[in-house]
Amino acid sequence: VQLVESGGGMVQPGGSLRLSCAASGFTFSSYDMDWVRQAPGKGPEWVSTITTGGGNTYYIESVKGRFTISRDNAKNTLSLQMNSLKPEDTALYYCAAKKPGQYEYDYWGQGTQVTVSS
Question: 10, 37, 38, 81 - which has most CB atoms within 10 Å?
């Protein structure tokens, strides 16, 4: 099983980044997918969820209207479009998979760093 994130980097406030997560080794379409971030010195913070078929999406209040989660079950990929980035969005971003209705994650990626700074 692998979840491999990409697309992180350094961007100025107000900029955009698109994160991707490539999944393999499990039935991607059967799992709800999340993005979780961890800022330096802080605990993990849930950012967004997309359900198995992509029909439902959920966001933490602080990113609503700025971030968009999406998935392509044919390509086993998850994405997070991040616009109007703020310094407080700086964190290591992980994609994670869990069965519908399950609280704990079955699989995690290794993370991709997002740094928002002028």
Answer: 37
- Cβ atoms within 10 Å, residue 76: 17
- DSSP secondary structure string for all residues of 35-82: EEEE-TTS-EEEEEEE-TTS--EEE-GGGTTTEEEEEETTTTEEEEEE
**Burial of 16 from C-beta contacts in 10 A (0-12 / 13-18 / 19+):** exposed
Residues in the chain: 118
pLDDT of residue 92: 98
pLDDT 10s digits, 70-86: 999 999 999 999 999 99
d(CA 24, CA 9): 24
Contact 117, 25 (CB under 8 A): no
